[in-house]
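User: structure tokens for this one?
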Amino acid sequence: MPDTSTMLSFAGVSLAFALLPGPNMLFLTATAASRGPRPAWRSALGVETATLLFALLTASGLGALVAASTVVFQTVKWAGVAYLVWLGIQAWREAARPTSSGQVATAVPPGSDGRRGFLVGISNPKVILFFVALLPQFVRPGAGPEWLQLLVFGLFFTVVGLAVDAVFCLTAGSVRRALAGRVSHPVLRRAPALTYFGLAGWAAFTGHRTA
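Assistant:
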């Protein structure tokens, strides 16, 4: 098992990494600001389920195989980009659709919050970079089986990410309540769609790999 000093160092790195602006944070903030903290929290569970999957893959050794395969890496990346673009189109259409009361509907793309969160998380190049490049650096010889150390680090990183996500969901939800009387502004109504398009661009132009 990792010793105390190693875990403290990893905790600091994990927290700093989770606080860095990235696709997950922008996605959850936009969801909470447009729809409230509960949908954002469900989305966060989906995001961190993807993180947990990365942790399990890394501990089993499959993560290194995925990282070494340009074809697999690019397939995951561009599938995520395509899904984000599709969500953006659906959100843009929904934002302009009037409800039965004549008001403009809040943009809610079809599908479950958890599934959307998972697909955003699984295609996040920032998290992929963490598990491929940073997490293995904390493995120490003689501290136990490598797979067990990787699993402990991966689970810890997932918990840290979930805690940070919860803070962002609650904070953005409070902002939503403060702006409740102004959500009819076209820019605010279309904020989720613009966020999805921005995330698609982020994913498309980061995490490039060469064969």
